[in-house]
Amino acid sequence: MEEMFPLVDESGKVTGQATRRECHNGSKVLHPVVHLHVFNSQGDLLLQKRAANKDIQPGKWDTSVGGHVDFGESVEDALYREAKEELGIENFIPEFLQSYIFESEIEKELVYSYKTVYDGPFEFEKKEIDQIRFWSISEIKSNQGKSVFTPNFENEWAQL
Question: Yes or no: is domain 4-149 CATH 3.40.640.10?
Fold first, then answer.
């Protein structure tokens, strides 16, 4: 059975639902996602390298945690679920950063962005993530604009 995502207006109010395929087929129906930026106590940022089999931006470095909000799920529940699924972390305190609309050639997302400080341990989902590692701020800055990162991460990084 295909995943169902809520459709939302720009304020986040649920207006309907659609399948993952419908949300990613170029229809640009607005659907919510969560991002979690995981910093270590030294100020480095954990990034994940998206698996080569991902349908969007395969093989690029991306936000520590990123995932869709399922239909009927709160943003906060989705944040904790995705952090556990992708990195195996449960005991963290998220700090809300911002929400914004991100639009690519195939989709339109209402992004809820958070950050936390967490030093590990991590257990990542190997079918969705090729690898994870902490990046220094200078490493991130020196690799921007070189197709190393997803456009969404680069856009969001500029806002942090």
Answer: no
Q: What are phi and psi of 75, to 5 degrees?
A: -60, -45
DSSP bridge pairs for 132: 48
Q: Say which residues have a Cβ less than 8 Å from residue 112's Cβ, sequence separation at least 6.
A: 32, 33, 34, 35, 69, 75, 79, 96, 99
DSSP 8-state symbol, 149: B
What are the residues whose beta carbons fall under 8 Å from the beta carbon of 91, sequence distance 6 or more?
none
Question: What pTM was estimated for this model as a whole?
Answer: 0.94
134-146 pLDDT, tens digit each: 999 999 999 999 9
CA atoms within 13 A on the CB side of 32: 28
Give tens-digit pLDDT for 62-102: 999 999 999 999 999 999 999 999 999 999 999 999 999 99
